[in-house]
Design goal:
Elements (H helix, E strand, L loop, with lengths): L1 H30 L8 H27 L1 H4 L6 H34 L15 H30 L7 E8 L2 E6 L33 E3 L2 E4 L4 E7 L4 E5 L4 E5 L5 E5 L5 H8 L6 E4 L12 E7 L1 H10 L3 H4 L1 H20 L7 H8 L1
Parallel strand pairs: 1-5, 4-10
Antiparallel strand pairs: 1-2, 2-3, 5-8, 6-7, 9-10
Length: 357
């Protein structure tokens, strides 16, 4: 109560001081003595505007140049060059406009500082100026939006038929990776089947999923299109691969996709960067929870022959987890027995069983 009382007293004092200040202004107006002389501070503030423009602009330029390499990692995908051109075209246009407006803002603040006897010119309207500063930005923005839409539809549209398919699923707080087996068809998954062993929710009653396998990291072949099928198991995540210029959200309940063609192997990028420990990385750039920092996954770009060799060494999920496969077979045998015992229900039970999954 003591603290609350003190706060109330302080608030009341502020209100009283405010009313007294207002009363003083009104008294000055009525007595004709409200005019104040402009002091040195007005001139000082005008000069500070120019200093801030020069020093701030120089600091920005230095920061940009010093961090350019960090902001722009080497490009390692075919579409990355088009994306980069589009990005820098946008940045140059916006940068020119930003620079001009800031120079005018600060220079005008200095040039038109308050001086006794000088009055502002009243300029209410000009149709020509209105049309110019509306039409030009509209045309420029329409061009940028169209170029972005064209590139975006290309990289999120249908992938080439021979593309390597990789499914990536985000969850708190790591990534899961699934590949189709030799049939190159991903099997059905069902969230109701997810447990500590079957994290993807493999439905091994689907023949296409029997040869699917999971991997601790992503392997893709150089020079070959790669289709990423993206899902989330819980909250919003983001598949961010800066060197491939890939950015796509992983949305719960809404699968997304993105395809790209890598152009440099991991070894080639290590040689280019001079970093023998370099690895391509998939990172989540959405703050998805307390363990967000752990949402990283290595990406290995192999030569085509090395990728084929790696692919051939992988064991399917069903091979690594025979007990899970056995449980599905047991359920299938039991279902088949029930169908044989009750032929009249044969057409109903499979549909009901699939619906339950």
């Amino acid at each position: 109560m003591t603290t609350l009382g003190i706060l109330l007293v302080l608030v009341l004092l502020l209100v009283v001081f405010g009313l007294l200040f207002r009363l003083q202004i009104l008294t000055s107006i009525f007595s004709g003595s409200s005019a104040r002389e402009v002091g040195v501070s007005n001139r000082v503030n005008a000069i500070l505007f120019i200093i801030f423009l020069v020093v701030g602009g120089a600091a920005f330029a230095w920061s940009f140049i010093d961090n350019y390499d960090k902001m722009n990692p080497p490009i390692a995908s075919v579409h990355g060059h088009a994306t980069e051109r589009m990005f820098w075209t946008t940045m140059i246009i916006l940068g020119i406009v930003f620079t001009l407006t800031q120079i005018l803002l600060f220079v005008y603040s200095y040039k038109y500082q308050h001086k006794e006897g000088r009055r502002a010119f009243f300029f209410p309207h000009n149709n020509k100026i209105e049309v110019i500063w509306t039409l030009i930005p509209a045309i420029v923005m329409a061009g940028l939006v169209f170029a972005g839409w064209k590139e975006w539809t290309r990289i999120t549209g249908p992938a080439p038929k021979d593309a390597v398919v990789v499914e990536v699923m985000g969850k708190q707080f790591n990534w899961l990776v699934r590949y189709p087996g030799r049939d190159q068809k991903l099997g059905v998954v069902n969230y109701r089947l997810i447990d500590a062993t079957n994290e993807f929710g493999f439905d091994l009653s689907d023949k296409n999923g029997v040869d699917d396998f999971v991997a601790p990291e992503i392997h893709v072949p150089k020079g070959h299109p790669v289709l990423l099928k993206i899902r989330s198991r819980d909250v919003l995540h983001a598949v961010y691969m800066p060197h491939f210029r890939v950015q796509m959200y992983a949305v719960p309940g809404m699968p997304t996709k993105f395809w790209f063609t890598p152009t440099k192997t991991t070894d080639e990028m290590r040689a280019q960067t001079g970093n023998p420990k370099f690895n391509y990385e998939l990172a989540c750039n959405q703050i998805c929870g307390r363990g967000h920092f752990a949402m990283k996954l290595n990406i290995v770009v192999d030569e085509p022959d090395d990728y084929v060799a790696w692919f051939g060494q992988q064991k399917s999920f069903s091979e690594q987890n025979p007990d899970v496969l056995a449980s599905f077979k047991q359920k299938s045998d039991k279902l088949a027995g029930n169908e044989a015992a009750a032929p009249e229900a044969a057409a109903v039970i499979p549909a009901a069983a699939k619906a339950s999954l």
